[in-house]
Design a protein that fits this description.
Blueprint: H1 10-17, H2 21-37, H3 39-42, H4 48-62, E1 71-81, E2 101-109, E3 119-128, H5 133-137, H6 141-144, H7 146-149, E4 155-158, E5 168-170, H8 183-188, H9 191-205
């Protein structure tokens, strides 16, 4: 999980660690088991108090003093690159960046990402790289359980790939963003930088997400 590309091969890791290839697979499975056990401790809906902290952070960063602070969460998508074209339905994994990968949707809420600390509170995974961000977003908790995730006028900040809705407000949405008198984009554009920081931190910590060295040749492997 800490390697990618050629350095992420089973043989290289086994040689570097001085153990068998089977041992690498076994230890990796145990690591995933431990991570999944801790999932609900670190990935969960923030409490009302935590939301208020995030709203105050938004209020301070944008400077509108109350107008947009209900947007306490941000969504963005990233591609988990695959080192080779999958043998099963390979074309479905082809991305707009001319590589093969998986679409990962990540929600960041503001203590956490919460842009102040980049904490992930929601996500969706398993879609192929050709899936549009707006389609992948439909599989998140925010889209499937809107009344549970958002209260009152709360909404999520998203980029221009997502639709406008009562609970999603895109930044840089054309053609309005091209108007010189559009002050909205100028005021909130820097918030999107926080989502990029989160993706960088995620892939920096889990290097395998920069180039996943797996062969997807069956539904089980996907």
């Amino acid at each position: 999980m800490g390697h990618y590309g050629n350095g992420g091969s089973l043989e290289d890791i086994a040689r570097h660690a001085g153990i068998s290839e089977g041992g690498v697979e076994l230890f990796t499975e145990r690591c995933f088991t431990a991570i999944e056990f801790l999932h609900d401790i670190f990935v969960h809906l923030p409490t009302a108090e935590e939301k208020e902290i995030e709203k105050l952070w938004i209020d301070h960063e944008i400077g509108f003093r109350g107008t947009w602070q209900e947007g306490w969460v941000m969504y963005d998508g990233t591609i988990v690159v695959l080192y080779t074209k999958p043998g099963l339905n390979g074309d479905a994994y082809f991305t707009r960046k001319s590589n093969y990968g998986l679409n990962l949707q990540v929600s960041l809420h503001y203590i956490g990402n919460l842009p102040s600390n980049l904490c992930i509170v929601d996500y969706a995974h398993g879609l192929t790289g050709s899936a549009h961000d707006s389609s992948a977003f439909k599989h998140t908790a925010a889209a499937k359980h809107t009344d549970w995730f958002f209260k009152g006028n709360e909404f999520a900040w998203v980029n221009s790939a997502y639709p406008v809705s009562p609970h999603t407000i895109p930044v840089h949405k054309h053609p309005t963003s091209l108007l010189p008198e559009n002050l909205f984009d100028s005021a909130v554009a820097h918030l999107l930088v926080q989502s990029e920081h989160c993706m960088g931190a995620l892939k920096g910590h889990w290097q395998c997400l920069r180039g996943l060295r797996v062969n997807i040749n069956s539904k089980h492997k996907h």
